[in-house]
Automatic annotation (TrEMBL):
Protein location: Membrane
Limits of the Receptor ligand binding region domain: 35-179
Protein name: Receptor ligand binding region domain-containing protein
Pfam short name (any one): ANF_receptor
One GO CC term, this protein: membrane
UniProtKB keywords: Membrane, Signal, Transmembrane, Transmembrane helix
Keyword presence, Membrane: yes
Chief location category: membrane
Leader sequence segment: 1-18
Source species of the chain: Tenebrio molitor (Yellow mealworm beetle)
Length: 189
């Protein structure tokens, strides 16, 4: 995720005029790892600047998963603070609300989640699911795994694993499927 955000932030720095560019990020739950990746990307861009290049400032908002109203409030707060782009949330309902406001205010939404059928012009930094499935299958075959565990985060991620699960016969392979954060409380244990 850090390299994708770094690429996008570098492009934004070339296109915008103010000395300090504010980049917003909306995370569905307090996700320390995602915030660290976001801050590392901003710090990396700021460290590599020379002379009169622009400085990036990251603004972070947290919203509950699948709460479009709070996502709307967070987006409006970021827009009113003058962000030039927003890194969107991962839940579909929140992301759609953020996209609507960003479209209305002409603020780019950096959407780093998987979207099966994007609407409108989109640049996807997420690898195509068919390619990922082939890679997973090749790794399992190359390492001769007979049994394996599939961990998924939400319904969308389980759907993406569908082709992988279909590709293995349950009589020859033992496959365990488990949801990481069943109660959406940030506890992945």
């Amino acid at each position: 995720m850090t390299s994708r955000v770094l690429l996008i932030l570098s492009v934004l720095m070339c296109c915008c005029k103010p000395e300090t560019l504010k980049i917003g990020a909306i995370f569905d739950i307090e996700a320390e790892v995602k915030e660290k990746a976001f801050q590392l990307a901003i710090d990396a861009v700021n460290t590599k600047r020379t002379g009169d290049e622009r400085y990036l400032e990251g603004l972070v908002e947290y919203v509950p998963c699948d709460n479009p109203f709070k996502a709307m409030v967070a987006t409006c707060r970021l827009v009113s603070n003058g962000v030039v782009a927003i890194l969107g949330p991962s839940s579909q309902d929140n992301a759609q609300m953020v996209q609507t406001i960003c479209d209305d205010k002409d603020v780019p939404l950096l959407d780093a989640r998987w979207v099966g059928r994007p609407k409108g012009p989109t640049i996807s930094f997420y690898p195509h699911q068919g390619v990922l499935t082939r890679v997973y299958m090749e790794v399992l075959d190359a390492w001769n795994f007979q049994d394996f565990v599939v961990l998924y985060e939400n319904d969308d991620s389980l759907k993406r694993m569908g082709e992988l699960l279909k590709g293995y016969d349950s009589k020859e392979h033992q496959i365990v499927v488990r949801q990481l954060d069943k109660y959406q409380n940030g506890n992945y244990r």
